[in-house]
């Protein structure tokens, strides 16, 4: 999985040393997760998809993802494991580093190899999170890798994944593309069709629309598929943090069904 640990660790240390500076705004926002939840409930996800992506591009993404995970958008990928990461790293020709980081506001980051000492691109995930959040971070960064395969940047580019920034993702084509990978991985089409019923989808994808019954269906899916639920073992802030992510990816998944039938 990592044939050059010294170089990888050096890059990880360098990037993490900058995270607190480069992500100052996001780190501050993380202290007020309810603000992001309020913004998310009012965002029109369908409009963001139409503005930044297309059905053809999303279909191409699904085809590329199935080269790594043949059952992508057909069945849940399952909770992350060492074998899951190693298999994907080999298929994608990536370095992967999982380690605990002091701030839970940071989920992970992606570094393209251009202009670095790396022989392959690098994905870092913050292992201090719940297993579902670790898997979310990994899938998000894989989305950046898929995007980099197309754009082929000439200089090194780092993509941080901070919590409390989901609203900003809807204005950024690269972040939205990466979030689509997470939504399709977490809610395969058959399950998504059960959770987000056809009469509800437009309302959910646009403003509000997340009623109590729908939220319970989402929680049942996350609990049954990934062993996740909000609990007293997590701090109130962390529960709110994960709630923001749950609402974001649910609204995005509903919008993908409504706009692109994927």
Describe the SSE topology.
Blueprint (H helix, E strand, L loop, with lengths): L4 H18 L1 H6 L3 H10 L2 H8 L2 H14 L13 H11 L2 E5 L6 E6 L10 E5 L4 H21 L6 E5 L3 H4 L3 H14 L2 H7 L2 H8 L6 H15 L9 H25 L2
Parallel strand pairs: 1-3
Antiparallel strand pairs: 2-3, 2-4
Helix pairs in contact: 3-13, 4-13, 5-9, 7-9, 9-13, 11-13
Care to describe what's here?
The protein is of the alpha+beta class. The chain has one domain (5-260). Helix content is 61%, strand content 8%. The chain contains 13 helices and four strands. The protein has helices at residues 5-22, 24-29, 33-42, 45-52, 55-68, 82-92, 131-151, 166-169, 173-186, 189-195, 198-205, 212-226, 236-260; strands spanning 95-99, 106-111, 122-126, 158-162. A four-stranded mixed β-sheet has the order 1-3-2-4, with helices on both faces. α4 (45-52) packs across α13, α5 (55-68) crosses α9 and α11 packs across α13 (236-260). The model has no long low-confidence stretch (mean pLDDT 87).
